[in-house]
Design brief:
Blueprint lengths: L1 E5 L3 H12 L3 E5 L11 E4 L1 H9 L3 H7 L1 E2 L2 E5 L5 E6 L11 E4 H16 L4 E2 L3 E8 L2 E7 L5 E7 L1 E4 L6 H6 L7 E14 L7 E7 L2 E7 L2 H5 L3 E10 L21 H4 L9 H6 L3 E9 L11 E3 L14 H17 L4 H24 L5 H9 L7 H4 L2 H14 L4 H11 L1
Parallel strand pairs: 1-2, 1-12, 2-8, 5-14, 12-18
Antiparallel strand pairs: 3-7, 4-7, 5-6, 9-10, 10-11, 13-16, 13-17, 14-15, 15-16
Bound molecules: flavin-adenine dinucleotide.
Length: 417
């Protein structure tokens, strides 16, 4: 069966490798003419590392990124609300990695090119139209000027073409741009000193003003430094206009640094980290409404094309990777491919819709807002501000929702063994 994937991002490349390994004939068509290591940091949760490890990629991830030891939530005074060991440090069979998004994409691309063969991942080919006739799909691809440069036939088409998916827009032409609720993110990378042991992901503050950071480079760690990926979230008020989305839009310090100027924790000088950045990008926090369906005959959606979500709980890349395994497992049953795509959708759409909706309600970050509301000046006894059973419920509900809870992951490990 010939499967065409539109988009060589994190989800498309993972799906291509999983499908190829299962014996499908796969070709990937990517819009950009050359892959550049764009973006800043990204996290891959243990449940997604499980899939990349099965593709032989764990050594490359481990030598490039940082094996995340701990996720720590803190208030805007730097006081710890919740600290959770991650990956192998939590007794799971797989690590969690924090890594530069561009480097992750390059690791996936190099592996996919080796597996699929030279020329099976084609660049400068933006999917711009397709028709489905019975069992065949005919798709057209254009270069950056809009000139059609290739047409191809396939038995199946997967739209893994990101948040602005052309495949999605074909089925939902009136959907319009992604949705924004007023939060802007400034994302940067700074070479600094390791903090909290050198492998901790931090979420500090509250929903309308938050600082997130995590180290992303093993090479820097080996030199005694930390390449710190950081994100400042600020709510801009209801009247602000949605800025143009562009992962490469440069940010300006003056727009957000003053709000973080006094965030000097005893374990991290937040304004110091921000000022020393060598890259700052500005991006609106956007998502899209969950769709009623992803699969239409022999065409379906995957990753951000299917379920773009707020970057809360480190789910974007991880869930795109999990989609790639899920679609492969359903197609490998070997029955009617349309039925397989329906099963893929039934398996993945409801939980992804729940994460999108939960993230709109702040997801696991709700604990930050509760503490800010109840103890804006800080606390001397956390338990009296956020009792342990209330905190435990927030955490376990979100982990179950994202299928990142220990029981689910250990069941997967047992099934593999
Ligand atoms: C340039 C870029 C930088 C990013 N940087 C970050 C970051 O720093 N941190 C973070 O958390 N997330 C980042 N993201 C988003 C993150 O990669 C995704 O949220 C997540 O990994 C889900 O992956 P995906 O494969 O579904 O989508 P993506 O990783 O967005 O990949 C989609 C791919 O489809 C290609 N494409 C788009 N339109 C078409 C078309 N019509 N035809 C063919 N191909 C098409 C895109 O060029 C891209 O390669 C970035 C995305 C991009 C595109």
């Amino acid at each position: 069966m010939r499967i065409v994937i539109a988009g060589a991002g994190i989800g498309g490349l993972t799906a291509a490798m999983c499908l190829h390994r299962a014996g499908f004939d796969v070709e990937v068509f990517e819009a950009v003419s050359t892959l550049k290591p764009l973006g800043v940091g990204i996290n891959i949760q243990a449940g997604a590392v499980r899939i990349l490890s099965s593709l032989g990629l764990e050594p490359a991830l481990a030598t490039t990124g940082i094996e995340t030891r701990e996720l720590r939530y803190a208030n805007r005074h730097g006081q710890t609300i919740w600290a959770d060991p991650r990956g192998r440090h939590a007794g799971l069979p797989w690590p969690q990695f924090s890594i530069h998004r561009g480097e992750l994409q390059m690791i996936l691309f190099d592996a996919a090119r080796r597996m699929l063969g030279e020329g099976r991942i084609k660049f400068g080919r933006r999917i711009c139209g397709f028709e489905q006739n019975g069992r065949k799909i005919r798709a057209r691809f254009a270069d950056r000027d809009g000139t059609i440069v290739e047409q191809t036939e396939a038995d199946l088409l997967i739209g893994a073409d990101g948040i602005h998916s052309a495949v999605r827009a074909h089925f939902y032409p009136g959907e319009g741009p992604p949705k924004w609720q007023g939060i802007l993110m400034w994302r940067g990378v700074t070479i600094g000193k390791p903090y909290l042991g050198g492998a901790t992901m931090v979420q500090a503050g509250h929903h309308t003003q938050k600082f997130v950071c995590y180290p992303i480079s093993r090479a820097h760690a080996e030199r005694g430094e930390a390449l710190i990926n950081w994100i400042c979230d600020l709510h801009m008020g209801d009247k602000a206009m949605l800025p143009r989305e562009d992962w490469n839009r440069p940010g300006t310090l003056g727009d957000f640094l003053p709000r973080f100027e006094n965030w000097k924790f005893d374990w991290l000088d937040v304004p110091g980290v921000i000022k020393a950045a060598h890259t700052i990008l500005e991006f609106p926090m956007v998502d899209r409404d969950p769709l009623p369906r992803w699969s239409h005959g022999r065409i379906t959606l995957l990753g951000d094309a299917a379920h773009p979500m707020y970057p809360i709980g480190s789910n974007g890349a991880s869930q795109a990777i999990i989609d790639g395994e899920a679609i492969t497992q359903e197609l490998s049953v070997g029955d009617d491919p349309e039925r397989a795509l329906q099963r893929y959708e039934q398996r993945r759409l409801p939980p992804m819709a729940r994460i999108v909706e939960s993230n709109r309600r702040k997801g696991i970050d709700i604990m930050l807002d509760i503490v800010e509301e109840r103890a804006p000046q800080g606390f001397s006894d956390l338990d009296s501000v956020l009792p342990p059973d209330e905190l435990e419920k927030i955490v376990s509900d979100y982990k179950k929702l994202a299928a990142q809870d220990r029981d689910t992951l250990l069941k997967l490990a047992a099934a593999k063994a």
